[in-house]
Amino acid sequence: MGGLRMANALGFRVNVYHMNEGPAALLTLALLERSLAADRSARPAKRTSSRCAPLRLHHPHPGSCRHDRFSTEQSIRILGGDRTARLEKLGCFRDGLLNMTLLALRFSRYANGVALQHGKVSREMFPEFAIDTITNGVHSTTWMSESIQQLVDEQIPAWRGDNLYLRNAIDIPSS
């Protein structure tokens, strides 16, 4: 919420926000509230999710500190009763707790795990959401040896233009 306020105060007009795990989920609440204030007749949830992508899931374990959960009492104390009631109504509570990852998933148009296993476990944790999987290809040419780059060039020619193709590396024959 503070990041959105700061970006606005600095004059930045952001079209799409990137969220990294559940701790960034309150951004969606701020965007939702802004959308409601601007136009009550609009579909604020849809407008909010269109502005949040991707949600990256790095720690696919329910006990991870990246999957913060708060009791209703904590949520009321921190966010207030109206916000807590709104989040409960929007399905952001699980097992009686405000689940920050669930909140982020509800209002993101795209979510992915940064490795095959992350995607698999995240889909098990949140089966109601389509959670994609990518190979974390950030600066892939800096962490790939020349021989591996050549192999990938032969097998997946489009990878240099779009690292999302690297998820197909699992299909490269091992011999």
Structure in words:
The chain is α/β, with parallel strands linked by helices and 175 residues long. Strands 1-2-6-7 form a four-stranded parallel β-sheet. The protein has a three-stranded antiparallel β-sheet with strand order 3-5-4. A hairpin with a 2-residue loop joins strand 4 and strand 5. The radius of gyration is 19 Å and the shape is elongated. The mean pLDDT is 85.
| Quantity of strands, as a count | 7
Order of strands in the sheet with the most strands?
1-2-6-7
Provide the low-confidence segments as ranges. Answer: none
Q: Which structural class should the secondary elements be placed in?
A: alpha/beta
Overall geometry comes to elongated
* End-to-end separation: 50 Å
Q: For the report, how would you describe the main beta sheet?
A: 4 strands, parallel
